[in-house]
């Protein structure tokens, strides 16, 4: 699909790009509203959202993206009606079943981030098969946040470090930001450069809370099932138009101050 993107890089600076492509993360929002406007069941909106994901993944390299993280199912989504939860679980399976051959062939590595506890055995089997099948691919990294919540991931990371301390393998004084980040489920990828939310909403919704410290935020007024490569390209163009300082000041500001 795209040139090598340096997937081996695990400790890039906040917002640092990985190899030939930046890291974009998307909160895929608006499936239900898309279906409601058309008088359709919500399930059909979710299915249309899967097609939008396929389009967006396929077109991401042309937009300059080398790592794409998408929010598929949150730890809070368990509160939805049981039928809708079942539909969302089925969509992950359907996506993998329909696209795994292509993703593997085109060098895409698939990772599922989030808690595995509580997932049905057939869902776990699909997750493990997708990760195993694409483990050695390095042209593009697709991370699907599934049964994921930013707060839950931070709590889990803290627990993992505490367990190391209990076993005598670390001391509390060892902990710094880089070490803590290594315990997060996202540790295999650099921090996101860009976080996009679709549907016109302006919230992070518990997505990549630790990792988004220096990410640029772009909110797009398009419902997810209508999303495609052209929308991602527009978000990347907006990202590239911004001046990222990482807590410092621009060179021209220094000159003026002097």
Automatic annotation (TrEMBL):
Enzyme class: transferase
Keywords: Magnesium, Metal-binding, Transferase
SUPFAM superfamilies linked to this entry: Undecaprenyl diphosphate synthase (SSF64005)
TM region(s), chain numbering: none
UniProt binding sites for Mg(2+): 29, 216
InterPro entries: UPP_synth-like, UPP_synth-like_CS, UPP_synth-like_sf
One of the GO BP terms on file: polyprenol biosynthetic process
EC number: 2.5.1.-
Any one Gene Ontology molecular-function term assigned to this protein's record: magnesium ion binding
Active site: 29, 77
This protein's record includes keyword NAD: no
PROSITE patterns: UPP_SYNTHASE
One Pfam family linked to the record: Prenyltransf
Cofactor(s) required, per the database record: Mg(2+)
Record HAMAP family: ISPT
Subunit structure: Homodimer.
Family to which the UniProt record says this protein belongs: Belongs to the UPP synthase family.
Protein's name according to its UniProt entry: Isoprenyl transferase
């Amino acid at each position: 699909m795209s040139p090598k993107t340096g997937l081996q890089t695990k400790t890039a600076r906040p917002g640092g790009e990985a190899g030939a492509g930046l890291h974009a993360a998307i909160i895929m929002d608006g499936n239900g509203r898309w279906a409601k406007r058309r008088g359709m069941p919500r399930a059909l909106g979710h299915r249309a959202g899967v097609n939008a994901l396929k389009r967006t993944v396929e077109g991401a390299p042309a937009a300059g993206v080398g790592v794409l993280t998408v929010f598929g199912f949150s730890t809070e989504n368990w509160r939805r009606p049981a039928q809708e939860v079942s539909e969302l679980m089925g969509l992950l399976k359907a996506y993998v079943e329909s696209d795994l051959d292509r993703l593997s062939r085109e060098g895409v590595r698939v990772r599922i981030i989030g808690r595995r506890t509580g997932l049905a055995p057939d869902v776990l089997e699909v997750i493990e098969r997708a990760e195993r099948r694409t483990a050695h691919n390095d042209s593009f990294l697709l991370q699907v946040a599934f049964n994921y919540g930013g707060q839950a991931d931070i709590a889990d990371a803290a627990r993992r470090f505490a367990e190391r301390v209990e076993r005598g393998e670390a001391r509390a004084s060892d902990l710094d930001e880089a070490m803590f980040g290594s315990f997060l489920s996202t540790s295999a990828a650099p921090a996101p450069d860009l976080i996009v939310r679709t549907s016109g909403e302006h919230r992070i919704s518990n997505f990549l809370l630790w990792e988004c410290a220096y990410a640029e935020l772009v909110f797009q007024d398009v419902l997810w099932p209508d999303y495609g490569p052209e929308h991602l390209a527009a978000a990347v163009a907006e990202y590239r138009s911004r001046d990222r300082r990482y807590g410092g000041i621009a060179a021209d500001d220094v000159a003026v101050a002097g």
